[in-house]
Design a protein that fits this description.
18 strands, Proliferating Cell Nuclear Antigen, alpha+beta, elongated
Length: about 240
Amino acid sequence: MFKAVIGAEKLKDSIESISTLVDEAKFKLTPEGISVKAVDPANVAMVSFELAKDAFDSFEATEGELGIDLTKLNGIMEMADKGDNIELELDENAHKLIVRMRGLSYTMSLLDPSSIRKEPKVPALDLPARIVIKGEDMRRAVKAAEKVSDYMSIGVKGDVFFMEAEGDTDKVLVEMTRDQLIDIQPAEAKSLFSLDYLSDMSKIVGKANEVTIDLGKDYPLKLRLKIAEGHGEVSYMLAPRVESE
């Protein structure tokens, strides 16, 4: 059983935070909320998503799984205005999700959860450097880097957090000191990442007041941020491109 009402903007942000990496996902339902763990087709990036029942105006659910085509659901959500409330209801007999908004009612076929890639195990990593930054600052650095390269180095040197991209002829460097950041736990860290992925993630990250970045040396990057007015959390993990000596 699943029946819920949620603000359109919260639902849009939630769906986009997952669909930036995958086209379909397995939503785990519990009486306490919804969660998703998914890895992109190339096994380079992972998303973990949690939305507590407090994010909803009303929420009833029993334990279960919904296989959802995110492209289709994003398309439906384009019909919703910012202030709309969205009603979601599972038709268990027909195995469909009913989405209602302002007089419109969509009946959407669900995917078989067993046909969706298995939920990944989130690796336990010791990432010594931690930076808390405004989402818009991260987005700005990524946009600047895209103009010169396909990759960006992210790291910490001393008390300075840096993001750097170098092309054949041009270079972009963004440096932020402790007083320009929300917080920093410095440690030696530097890794190189694909801007394709960082660009997709930064569209979500850029909306957040603050983003926590965990880093190591040639280790994956972890980005964490709150969504849905603090009732939801998204975490991205991105594998590095290890530079040859």
